[in-house]
Specification:
Elements: H1 4-23, E1 31-35, H2 42-58, E2 62-66, H3 73-81, E3 88-93, H4 94-103, E4 114-129, H5 138-147, E5 153-156, H6 162-174, E6 179-182, H7 186-195, E7 200-204, H8 205-213, E8 218-222, H9 237-240, E9 250-258, H10 263-277, H11 280-289, E10 292-293, H12 298-319
Parallel strand pairs: 1-2, 1-3, 5-6, 5-7
Antiparallel strand pairs: 3-9, 4-7, 4-8, 4-9, 4-10
Helix pairs in contact: 2-10, 4-12
Protein name: Tripartite tricarboxylate transporter substrate binding protein
InterPro entries: BUG, Bug_dom1
Pfam family, one: TctC
Length: about 325
């Protein structure tokens, strides 16, 4: 018999469905955010900014785990192999998620192994030198390098990372030679630069700006097409020499999920990240770091990542660069 109670229950179903959709997916255990780099760099900073916000929204612990090595491949591979249920995410970046796809011959994943969920921040790299280097401008550094071919070393957070390829492109465009010294993340590389164990590096501005402001290193140029508001007196590299007229690099970071992660999981994480980007704390942090929020839906972030993959594929193929995963 169709009772009044049953009728009321049926009327309530659409509202319940709307509520379920609004709340979205909820994790049933702690969520891991894997950072494929050492502590101290922009990837690590991004993960540790977003983790407490997601934890508050999802009602489960969200922990950050650093898995550095092989230019981000080790950490990425761990995320790719994880169960695609939303309990493991990757704080990826331009290195392993774009450049590496063309740079490495034997990469254990491809562009379809991960789902781009949402960006965190983007920004230029900045050319920084140890104070002992007799160069106050980029052309002066080029002149110094040409007088000392193969004698100076430049650091990076790992082979295949954006700062590494930025340095390679810089050396090729200016006809200079320097020894590349890879580290397991931007933090360790910056420490070695401050210590004078390497002479220069292209660092993510978002992680290197504090060293610059403290006077521990000297900034000569940014890799983007235009100057950065946080360092208005530092020129864009393309301003300084005709050889660098086409030089334009921005590094970026964002959350990825293993392939086959259910759509409701992706949408829930993306929705919370969009709200997180609007918080005053995050906006202030990006300004402080010299970065720009990388906003967008999963579809928009996917289109952005695919564009970066294609861009670096062309650069790497043109330069004839190819490596094996170590």
């Amino acid at each position: 018999m169709f009772t009044r109670r049953a009728a009321l229950a049926l009327l309530a179903l659409p509202a319940l469905a709307r509520t379920a959709r609004a709340e979205g997916w909820r994790p049933t255990q702690p969520v891991r955010i894997i950072v494929p780099a050492a502590p101290g760099g922009t990837a690590d900073i991004s993960a540790r900014l977003v983790a407490p916000y997601l934890q508050a929204q999802l009602g489960q612990n969200v922990v950050v785990e650093n898995r550095s090595g092989a230019g981000g491949v080790i950490g990425t591979q761990e995320a790719v192999r994880a169960t695609p249920d939303g309990h493991t995410l990757l704080l990826g970046n331009i290195g392993p998620q774009a450049i590496g796809l063309s740079l490495y011959r034997n990469l254990p994943y491809n562009r379809d192994s991960l789902i781009p969920v949402g960006g965190t921040v983007r920004g230029p790299n900045v050319l920084v030198v140890h104070p002992s280097i007799p160069a106050n401008t980029l052309p002066e550094l080029v002149a110094h390098l040409k007088k000392n071919p193969g004698k100076l070393s430049f650091g990076s957070p790992g082979v295949g990372q954006s700062p590494h390829l930025t340095g390679v492109w810089f050396n090729q465009a200016t006809g200079t030679e320097a020894i590349h010294v890879p580290f397991r993340g931007a933090g360790p590389a910056a420490m070695e630069l401050v210590a004078g164990n390497i002479q220069f590096m292209w660092d993510n501005l978002t992680s290197g700006i504090q060293q610059i402001k403290a006077g521990r290193v000297r900034a000569l140029a940014v890799s983007s097409a235009d100057r950065n508001p946080q360092l208005p007196d530092v020129p864009a590299a393309r301003e300084t020499m005709p050889e660098l007229a086409q030089f334009d690099v921005n590094t970026w970071f964002g959350i990825f999920a293993p392939a086959h992660t259910p759509r409701p999981v992706v949408e829930t994480i993306a929705r919370h990240m969009a709200a997180w980007q609007e918080t005053a704390e995050v906006q202030a942090r990006w300004r402080e770091m010299g970065g720009v929020a990388l906003r967008g839906t999963p579809e928009e972030f996917t289109a952005f990542v695919n564009g970066e993959i294609d861009k670096w594929s062309n650069v790497i193929r043109r330069e004839g660069l190819q490596l094996d995963v170590g």
